[in-house]
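dumping these here so i dont lose them again. two proteins, back to back, each one seq then structure tokens. dont judge the mess
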Amino acid sequence: MKPANLKDSVILSNGVKMPWMGLGVFKVKNGEEAVQSVKAAIKNGYRSVDTAAIYQNEESVGQAIKECGVPREELFITTKLWNSEQGYESTLNAFETSMNKLGLDYLDLYLIHWPGKDKYKETWKAFEKLYKEGRVRAIGVSNFQIHHLEDLIAAAEIKPMVNQVEFHPHLTQKDLMAYCTKEEIRLEAWSPLKQGQLLNEPVIEKIAKKYNKSIAQVILRWDLHHEVITIPKSVKEQRIVENADIFDFELTSEEIAEIDGLNQDSRAGSHPDTMSVGFE
């Protein structure tokens, strides 16, 4: 079921509705910049905001939620546990810290930010506890490869509902997508524009001209065609609005195949198997 507008949601494996599209706030400065970008997104119809402890802007996201004029239950808020906090007790403590910063009574989605080496199963037990207590409506992971997911699921009582990974036309992650589909884990794209590196890709530029759209809009439409949840980041209201203006055109199967063909298995971010910052 592909979305028809910005408020459309996908139903996660536990029945919780999550908007197909949200605002990411990676590298958005805590304070006025973060408050205004979140408020601009909500004012223009976004209902999902994705932050993380390591982004150091949870307070501003929380302030924007309070001031936006939209009831809390209409919003979908995600944050993530940072690497150095992995482990059972430390996860529970880190969750309380995030909730205090956000000023929220409950969270919609909590993610393990990176797998690391040996603590994610212990961390997941804490996630399951928070989920069972109703503190979090859905739990998931970020940057998990197939082997991490297999290992986690084998020891888990509750399967992750979401896996947020780097996903864009240069990194299509087809095997991971197929595995997540089979396990009813929703794939979510971070860095859908490869941190801006795709904004002069000739193949996409040609398609964008045909539809009188930007390259970013074509890529975000391609995400949704693949039924991948997406969270583009911008601090400019005009760009935030433009990113969401993608529901009035449909890519052809040939165009989808052309964009799929740009895959290089190349990343803008770290590889999950070698990412170790904060695990020391």
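---- next one ----
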Amino acid sequence: MSLKIDFDEQVEVIHRFYSQLYAPSAPDPHATTILLSSDTARDVHRRLSPEQQNALMAPIEIEEIIQLSGRASRTSSPGVDGLPYGILRLFLKHPAVASLATTVYNAALKYACFPAT
């Protein structure tokens, strides 16, 4: 007996599996208490300066998105959206897509608002 699963069902099963696999788990209250009660003065050299914090929170520009997407292999597997990085880089150069991409990336950075796709 053979089971035939169509492409959409396969994608759904894979999506569900990885969503569960990488879902955040609740923090351990005991570990949190230990971390919060530890002496943080010894770690002051590991803290970011206000300038570093501002640089990390600076708005993301389309040029940066295009440049960093270029680091991915051109032969990498497409994501859930089905777009390989080579095609994505072409789309990002279109003004309407560039505007949408910067809006989405900056909303993710500023508000931790991530789209489903």
